[in-house]
Amino acid sequence: MPTVSMTVNGKAVVADVDSRTLLVQFLRETLRLTGTHVGCDTSQCGCCVVHVNGDAIKSCTALALSLEGADVRTIEGLADGDKLHPMQEAFRENHGLQCGFCTPGMIMTAVEMVKRKGNKLDEKTIREELEGNICRCTGYHNIVKAIAAGAEAMGKSA
Ligand code: FES
Ligand code: FES
Predict the structure, then answer these.
(1) Can you tell me the distance from the alpha carbon of 140 to that of 153, in angstroms, rounded to the nearest whole number?
(2) Per-residue pLDDT, 112
(3) If pLDDT is split at 50, 70 and 90, which confidence band does 157 have?
(4) Ligand 1 atom closest to Cα of residue 48
(5) 57: helix, strand or coil
(6) For 38-83, how does the pLDDT look when each residue is reduced to its tens digit (9 = 90+)?
(7) 38-51 exposure pattern, b = at least 16 Cβ within 10 A, e = fewer
(8) pLDDT digits (tens, 9 = 90+) for 2-34
């Protein structure tokens, strides 16, 4: 089997992978980072969003082998020890989740949204940017509120 090396949440990892292994399988099954979820496997739901070299991608759409040398960040890499990332804290404060299944993908999408769109996010922008993330529980209102609050908080903590 071929070998792939990449950095995941700041740690160098090297592993043998089948050439068909998706990034999401590599994260969940090889590295046991199960915070990245699989909701559809057809690149629609966004539960599997992670950051690759700073960009948000659906990890069910990338082959692990194609990411040789990449810098990957998952939901497990967001908090600073026991201190939640401001976007995680904002989801908690604003009740931006119910079952929580979509939440890791929502948060990873949101953090990258702030990087591209800045700390003052209006509702329309947030809703448009969430086009690729599906939540079956919340009706989205509190997710939108959480992302606006988290974006502001990220500006203050920067
Ligand atoms: Fe990747 Fe649904 S599992 S988009
Ligand atoms: Fe249940 Fe979003 S909180 S799917």
Answers:
(1) 20
(2) 98
(3) confident
(4) 1
(5) strand
(6) 999 899 999 999 999 999 999 999 999 999 999 999 999 999 999 9
(7) bbeeeeebbbbbbb
(8) 999 999 999 999 999 999 999 999 999 999 999
Burial environment of residue 130 by CB neighbours within 10 A (0 to 12, 13 to 18, 19 or more): buried
Give the residue carrying structure tokens 């090396």. 5
Which ligand 1 atom sits nearest the alpha carbon of residue 37? 3
Q: 49-52 and 3-8 as β-strands: parallel, antiparallel, unpaired?
A: unpaired
Residues with CB under 6 A from ligand 1: 38-41, 43-48, 58, 60
Asked whether the predicted pLDDT for residue 140 surpasses 90, the reply is yes
- How far from 12 is each of 4, 99, 121, 128, CA to CA, in Å? 11, 32, 34, 35
Task: Say yes or no: CB of residue 137 within 6 Å of ligand 2.
Answer: yes
Q: Are 133 and 102 in contact, with CB atoms under 8 Å apart?
A: yes
Q: Cα of 143 to ligand 2 centre, how many Å?
A: 10
